[in-house]
Amino acid sequence: DPAGNNNAVATDFTFTYDTTAPTVSSITFADVALKAGDTSLVTIVFSEAVTAFANADLTIVGGTMTAVSSANSGVTWTSTYTPTADLEDDTNVLIVADSYTDIAGNAGSAGLTSGNYEIDTLLPVLTIGITSDNSNGATLAMSGDTITLTITVSESVTGLVCTIDDEATASSGSAQSWSSTLELSGDETEGALGFSCASHADAAG
To answer: Whole-prediction pTM value?
Structure first.
């Protein structure tokens, strides 16, 4: 000052200079072959921390996702994907748009499309006819008669097993066409006999 006093040291001024646009580094599905009852963790990684990123920045195909969230200040985001029920589609992708920004406000320079994931939540459906070789009619049976189940499946399955009156039957067939037979021994429940077919699965499991 005019009297010769030296000035006090000023506080340093610091700032961050950032002109680098953020990018999407990767999109990963933990499960890329989804069947009925499955969900998949989805992980989206950016080149740097981003802000204001939300599901509105995504094109979600074949299902729904929980709200994306980040546990490391905005670099890595995760969500749980649930496929649509009764859907069979081999070609699906998740698209991240370029509408996000980094913390400095730089707009995303590009989006990214994930690798393909397959969805098969369509359950196989059985159509079953039941007949008997009884000489008095196909809806009647007595001891020694053979009851036959004729089974058509909406898609190829494996492992089909049937019972009649809770007794194991002789099953045969493959893919979409099966049959199952039981020769009545006489110890069955008199009246209308129930049957059940289960244990089968399609290619997706």
So the answer is: 0.79
